[in-house]
Amino acid sequence: MWQSLVFSILFLHACATSESAHLKQLKINYPYGILGDDFGLLKEDDLAINTCKVTEPEPFSAESTAYPYWQCFRTEEVIFECSSSGYDLIEKMTPAILAIVSKGKKGNQEYLSRRAIDMKICKSIEKDWKKAIAGEKHVCLSGPYGGPSENGNFWMFDKFKTQRGCISYFEGDCDLPYQLKNGCKLKTVTPHNSMIAAQPTPE
Q1: Residues 168 and 179: beta-carbon distance below 8 Å
Q2: pLDDT tens across 6-63, in order?
Q3: CA separation for the pair 92, 201 (Å, rounded)
Q4: How far is Cα 29 from Cα 32, in angstroms, rounded to an integer?
Q5: What are the domain boundaries of the chain?
Q6: Most buried of 24, 75, 92, 160 (most Cβ within 10 A)?
Protein backbone atom coordinates (compact mmCIF):
# COMPACT_ATOMS: atom_id res chain seq x y z
CA MET A 1 0.00 0.00 0.00
CA TRP A 2 2.77 2.42 0.99
CA GLN A 3 4.72 1.55 -2.14
CA SER A 4 1.64 2.34 -4.23
CA LEU A 5 1.12 5.65 -2.40
CA VAL A 6 4.76 6.67 -2.86
CA PHE A 7 4.56 5.79 -6.57
CA SER A 8 1.42 7.90 -6.98
CA ILE A 9 3.07 10.89 -5.30
CA LEU A 10 6.18 10.56 -7.46
CA PHE A 11 4.05 10.19 -10.59
CA LEU A 12 2.08 13.35 -9.83
CA HIS A 13 5.29 15.22 -9.08
CA ALA A 14 6.80 14.07 -12.37
CA CYS A 15 3.72 15.26 -14.25
CA ALA A 16 3.86 18.67 -12.58
CA THR A 17 7.57 18.97 -13.32
CA SER A 18 7.07 17.98 -16.94
CA GLU A 19 4.24 20.50 -17.32
CA SER A 20 6.40 23.30 -15.92
CA ALA A 21 9.25 22.33 -18.23
CA HIS A 22 6.83 22.37 -21.19
CA LEU A 23 5.63 25.91 -20.42
CA LYS A 24 9.16 27.08 -19.77
CA GLN A 25 10.23 25.79 -23.18
CA LEU A 26 7.32 27.53 -24.90
CA LYS A 27 8.23 30.84 -23.30
CA ILE A 28 11.90 30.89 -24.30
CA ASN A 29 11.16 32.74 -27.55
CA TYR A 30 7.50 33.70 -26.97
CA PRO A 31 7.19 34.63 -23.29
CA TYR A 32 3.99 36.67 -23.63
CA GLY A 33 1.98 34.45 -25.97
CA ILE A 34 0.06 32.44 -23.38
CA LEU A 35 -1.84 33.54 -20.30
CA GLY A 36 -1.91 30.79 -17.67
CA ASP A 37 -1.48 27.05 -18.19
CA ASP A 38 -1.86 25.39 -21.60
CA PHE A 39 -2.39 21.88 -20.15
CA GLY A 40 0.14 20.56 -22.67
CA LEU A 41 -1.97 21.52 -25.72
CA LEU A 42 0.18 24.15 -27.39
CA LYS A 43 3.39 23.94 -29.38
CA GLU A 44 5.95 26.60 -30.19
CA ASP A 45 4.46 26.99 -33.67
CA ASP A 46 1.13 27.99 -32.11
CA LEU A 47 2.78 30.88 -30.29
CA ALA A 48 5.00 31.76 -33.24
CA ILE A 49 2.07 32.22 -35.64
CA ASN A 50 0.53 34.89 -33.42
CA THR A 51 3.60 37.10 -33.75
CA CYS A 52 2.95 37.40 -37.49
CA LYS A 53 0.14 39.85 -36.76
CA VAL A 54 1.97 42.40 -34.62
CA THR A 55 4.93 44.75 -34.82
CA GLU A 56 6.19 43.64 -31.42
CA PRO A 57 4.85 41.03 -28.95
CA GLU A 58 4.05 42.59 -25.57
CA PRO A 59 2.94 41.52 -22.09
CA PHE A 60 -0.78 41.47 -21.52
CA SER A 61 -2.35 44.75 -20.38
CA ALA A 62 -5.57 46.69 -20.94
CA GLU A 63 -3.77 48.55 -23.74
CA SER A 64 -2.41 45.49 -25.59
CA THR A 65 -5.27 45.06 -28.05
CA ALA A 66 -3.36 43.84 -31.12
CA TYR A 67 -1.32 40.82 -30.01
CA PRO A 68 -3.38 37.59 -30.01
CA TYR A 69 -2.90 35.76 -26.69
CA TRP A 70 -3.69 32.12 -25.97
CA GLN A 71 -5.82 31.11 -22.98
CA CYS A 72 -6.87 27.58 -22.08
CA PHE A 73 -9.94 26.40 -20.20
CA ARG A 74 -11.77 23.31 -19.00
CA THR A 75 -14.21 22.30 -21.75
CA GLU A 76 -16.98 21.82 -19.21
CA GLU A 77 -16.82 25.56 -18.43
CA VAL A 78 -17.05 26.71 -22.07
CA ILE A 79 -20.12 27.20 -24.27
CA PHE A 80 -20.43 27.96 -28.00
CA GLU A 81 -23.24 30.16 -29.29
CA CYS A 82 -24.44 31.60 -32.59
CA SER A 83 -26.61 34.60 -31.67
CA SER A 84 -28.88 36.27 -34.22
CA SER A 85 -31.76 38.75 -34.35
CA GLY A 86 -33.24 37.09 -37.43
CA TYR A 87 -33.12 37.11 -41.22
CA ASP A 88 -31.77 40.23 -42.95
CA LEU A 89 -33.81 41.01 -46.08
CA ILE A 90 -31.19 43.40 -47.45
CA GLU A 91 -28.19 41.09 -46.95
CA LYS A 92 -30.34 38.07 -47.79
CA MET A 93 -28.88 36.01 -44.97
CA THR A 94 -29.21 35.45 -41.23
CA PRO A 95 -26.37 37.42 -39.60
CA ALA A 96 -24.95 35.94 -36.43
CA ILE A 97 -22.40 36.77 -33.77
CA LEU A 98 -20.12 33.84 -32.91
CA ALA A 99 -19.52 33.66 -29.17
CA ILE A 100 -17.37 31.21 -27.21
CA VAL A 101 -17.67 31.92 -23.51
CA SER A 102 -15.69 30.50 -20.60
CA LYS A 103 -17.63 30.93 -17.37
CA GLY A 104 -14.95 30.72 -14.70
CA LYS A 105 -14.72 31.70 -11.05
CA LYS A 106 -12.83 34.90 -11.93
CA GLY A 107 -15.45 36.03 -14.43
CA ASN A 108 -16.33 35.29 -18.02
CA GLN A 109 -13.84 35.27 -20.90
CA GLU A 110 -15.90 35.91 -24.04
CA TYR A 111 -14.47 35.29 -27.51
CA LEU A 112 -16.57 37.04 -30.16
CA SER A 113 -16.47 37.30 -33.94
CA ARG A 114 -15.25 40.71 -35.09
CA ARG A 115 -18.47 41.32 -36.96
CA ALA A 116 -21.72 39.57 -37.78
CA ILE A 117 -21.17 36.52 -40.00
CA ASP A 118 -23.53 34.30 -41.94
CA MET A 119 -25.36 31.91 -39.61
CA LYS A 120 -24.35 29.06 -41.93
CA ILE A 121 -20.67 29.86 -41.35
CA CYS A 122 -21.21 30.12 -37.59
CA LYS A 123 -22.98 26.76 -37.50
CA SER A 124 -20.19 25.20 -39.56
CA ILE A 125 -17.59 26.42 -37.03
CA GLU A 126 -19.83 25.18 -34.21
CA LYS A 127 -19.87 21.73 -35.84
CA ASP A 128 -16.04 21.75 -35.92
CA TRP A 129 -16.06 22.92 -32.29
CA LYS A 130 -18.18 20.00 -31.14
CA LYS A 131 -15.89 17.53 -32.92
CA ALA A 132 -12.79 19.17 -31.47
CA ILE A 133 -13.92 19.14 -27.83
CA ALA A 134 -15.58 15.71 -27.86
CA GLY A 135 -14.00 13.71 -25.04
CA GLU A 136 -11.44 16.46 -24.34
CA LYS A 137 -10.86 18.03 -20.92
CA HIS A 138 -9.31 21.29 -22.09
CA VAL A 139 -9.50 23.71 -25.00
CA CYS A 140 -7.29 26.68 -25.87
CA LEU A 141 -8.61 29.87 -27.47
CA SER A 142 -6.65 32.61 -29.20
CA GLY A 143 -7.38 36.22 -30.07
CA PRO A 144 -6.51 39.82 -29.19
CA TYR A 145 -7.98 41.52 -26.13
CA GLY A 146 -11.15 43.51 -26.78
CA GLY A 147 -11.77 45.09 -23.40
CA PRO A 148 -13.79 44.56 -20.22
CA SER A 149 -17.30 43.13 -20.41
CA GLU A 150 -20.15 43.18 -17.93
CA ASN A 151 -19.04 39.93 -16.28
CA GLY A 152 -15.36 39.72 -17.23
CA ASN A 153 -13.45 40.36 -20.48
CA PHE A 154 -14.07 39.96 -24.17
CA TRP A 155 -11.62 38.96 -26.88
CA MET A 156 -11.66 38.82 -30.67
CA PHE A 157 -12.04 35.21 -31.79
CA ASP A 158 -9.24 33.90 -34.01
CA LYS A 159 -9.02 30.14 -33.36
CA PHE A 160 -9.30 27.27 -30.92
CA LYS A 161 -7.27 24.12 -30.33
CA THR A 162 -7.59 20.78 -28.53
CA GLN A 163 -5.65 17.53 -28.79
CA ARG A 164 -7.82 16.79 -31.82
CA GLY A 165 -6.52 19.75 -33.79
CA CYS A 166 -6.73 23.49 -34.44
CA ILE A 167 -9.59 25.37 -36.12
CA SER A 168 -9.20 29.00 -37.22
CA TYR A 169 -11.55 31.68 -38.50
CA PHE A 170 -8.89 33.08 -40.84
CA GLU A 171 -7.37 30.92 -43.57
CA GLY A 172 -4.07 29.32 -42.58
CA ASP A 173 -4.07 30.73 -39.04
CA CYS A 174 -3.17 27.32 -37.60
CA ASP A 175 -0.50 26.59 -40.23
CA LEU A 176 2.95 28.15 -39.66
CA PRO A 177 4.47 27.02 -43.01
CA TYR A 178 1.49 28.63 -44.77
CA GLN A 179 2.04 31.88 -42.86
CA LEU A 180 5.77 31.93 -43.59
CA LYS A 181 5.12 31.27 -47.28
CA ASN A 182 2.75 34.24 -47.32
CA GLY A 183 5.13 36.77 -45.83
CA CYS A 184 4.99 36.22 -42.08
CA LYS A 185 8.07 37.44 -40.22
CA LEU A 186 8.38 35.93 -36.76
CA LYS A 187 9.18 38.16 -33.79
CA THR A 188 10.86 36.62 -30.77
CA VAL A 189 11.78 38.20 -27.45
CA THR A 190 13.97 36.90 -24.64
CA PRO A 191 13.28 38.99 -21.54
CA HIS A 192 14.69 38.31 -18.09
CA ASN A 193 13.02 35.43 -16.26
CA SER A 194 11.56 37.81 -13.69
CA MET A 195 9.70 39.58 -16.47
CA ILE A 196 8.22 36.31 -17.66
CA ALA A 197 7.06 35.46 -14.16
CA ALA A 198 5.39 38.86 -13.90
CA GLN A 199 3.18 38.26 -16.95
CA PRO A 200 -0.30 39.38 -15.79
CA THR A 201 -3.51 37.49 -16.52
CA PRO A 202 -6.99 38.97 -17.01
CA GLU A 203 -9.29 38.94 -13.99
Answers
A1: no
A2: 223 223 333 444 457 888 888 899 999 999 999 999 999 999 999 998 989 999 999 9
A3: 41
A4: 9
A5: 2-197
A6: 160
